[in-house]
Predict the structure.
Amino acid sequence: MVDKVIHIYVISDSAGETASKLAQAAIAQYDVLDLEVQIVRRTFVSDKETLMDVLQEAKELDAIVLQTLIVDELVVIAKQFCQENGIFSIDPLTPLVDEISRRSETEPNRLPGAMHFLNKNYFDRIAAMEFAVKYDDGKDPRGFLQADIILLGVSRTSKTPLSLFLANKNLKVANLPLIPEAHIPSQLWEVNPKKIVGLTNDPKILNVIRKERMIAYGLNPDTAYSNINKIKEELEFANNLYKKIGCPVINVAQRSIEETASIILSELGLEDRSYYHS
Amino acid sequence: MVDKVIHIYVISDSAGETASKLAQAAIAQYDVLDLEVQIVRRTFVSDKETLMDVLQEAKELDAIVLQTLIVDELVVIAKQFCQENGIFSIDPLTPLVDEISRRSETEPNRLPGAMHFLNKNYFDRIAAMEFAVKYDDGKDPRGFLQADIILLGVSRTSKTPLSLFLANKNLKVANLPLIPEAHIPSQLWEVNPKKIVGLTNDPKILNVIRKERMIAYGLNPDTAYSNINKIKEELEFANNLYKKIGCPVINVAQRSIEETASIILSELGLEDRSYYHS
């Protein structure tokens, strides 16, 4: 165990989302007890002076520099400074941009924050996020008819976070909680079943999660909500509905949101639309 | 203009979020009319056979390989295959992981999907997303007292997408739409003003957005909602409230969600908590 803090300087002329993801993926490979890493975000760096200040800071802390600058002049400055000062630096974007340019015989526009341009794709994503919130939890079944995906599931099968995660990929998602006593909205039968996904979970896991939820709410953990036989009944009700609809069924137990979302996209044959930057 | 499609193979033993972000950042640098790029996601690749099939596919398409494999054996196979077959490949993760290991004298755990481990940090993020949905749009002002951030703003100042974006960074965000006629919930005065951010926008932009919204709803665009004087009144009401609270004010005009979120974090002195993987 080394007690020295490792600083990672995320430097970007935009929001630094790419470099941050990369830094997170790397540090996730270590046990937090073994490692003290501090990620310092220096984002929206758009001029030489600011960049030089940031690089100087990084040098003083003996930081790892992770930069995704796109403005040519800034890329050159960062590269030269790191080289001259023996700073370990990573520039994951330049080789990829260079290769795309070589193959397409097209110059990059070198505009910072091009990913966040206020274009149609961007507004579609915002609209998808608002859609997910509006049509969460079966609030308005009319949303089913406009949705790209409808998620069905009993309580605690990750419907809300999955809807939001998929919204970030420009997909309009509505979700409906399944409760045996409740009425299934008629709109569900008007939807193409190829847009519907049934979520399920292991009864034992649901039992534990729901007990914890009751405790968190300051309630008795042994209510009908957390009763194992009641949970099995609910899951059976849900599975019978899924069979009737003929939709794919995904068990979310032991799966992260990212993994379940990936399976949903592949089951429904949907593309991640966030790539199209038209 | 070249009409050949450029394939980018995103290969990961996890969800491939890091590599996808990198690919998106690169292609965002080109005009979509000049370039035909197809991103092919091959995620959750966890064994040699699948990896070899994927690499073979990439070879046949003369694809650019962008891999964030973490399992040592798979990294070696991918590297060797790309080298032997002259495939242009990028591995942004290995140099960073190697450098962290060198500095910390600690071996990485080499577990795929470590970012999505079902640990406390992960469940905190899910809880933050559910919080954002639950306390969106002033639905329940009791949320103000539990929130890390409270966003205030008139209609169409990006409150909902900002709340969701910040939730992804493990921050609990509640938001309240400001309408001059409506009552300000008493809970707002109990909150530490250092948790509050006031959002504003340019009246002309709001005018255009709101007219479009009315048209999208099939309504007359020239209602009180889109009236420029009415909008100015609303913004004045909001600005007076912000002064009374003493909170920072951010104009969202011409800013992406990512940029505004970045400003909010820096104004409130908040860290992006999604980094801490304890």
Chain B touches chain A through 82 residues (CB under 8 Å). The mean pLDDT of chain B is 90.
